[in-house]
């Protein structure tokens, strides 16, 4: 991988991860408010609340990953354009396909990540949430 590819891939990956964390955090906060009655009404610990809401994070990541990827690619391309790096790359003879190669690689990596999330991580976390909520309800009934 050449230096330009590494530079673009690093910047796009950093922007993607930042956007993913922020968007998943906002989504987690809205969902956590819905689960807050688990702590207050049913007398559970903060650890139980964090476990139930934290197990929903893979579902949030699956939803917001494409949005974060789009935002990251647009951010990096806009920054390249604003800093006149696009003009310098065009003057150096860099083709648009050559410029898109790191973004295509990042897109493939995000696609694999979302595939793994949807096939294995999300069903496992939903099973764990179901078991945890069942245990909490059984604890209240006793």
Descriptive notes:
With 142 residues, this protein is mainly alpha-helical. The chain is 87% helix and 0% strand. It has six helices and no strands. It has helices spanning 3-34, 37-40, 46-54, 57-82, 85-91, 96-141. Helix 1 crosses helix 4. The longest helix has 46 residues, at 96-141. The chain is elongated, with a radius of gyration of 21 Å.
SSE arrangement:
Elements: H1 3-34, H2 37-40, H3 46-54, H4 57-82, H5 85-91, H6 96-141
Helix pairs in contact: 1-4, 1-6, 4-6
Total helices: the number is 6
Instruction: Report strand %.
Output: under 5%
Shape estimate: elongated
Unreliable stretches covering 5 or more consecutive residues: none
Number of strands: 0
N-C termini distance: 61 Å
- Amount of helix: over 70%
User: From N to C, what is the helix and strand string?
Assistant: HHHHHH
For this structure, the quaternary state is: single chain
Biggest β-sheet description: none
Alpha-beta classification = mainly alpha
What's the gyration radius in Å? 21 Å
Arithmetic mean pLDDT = 88
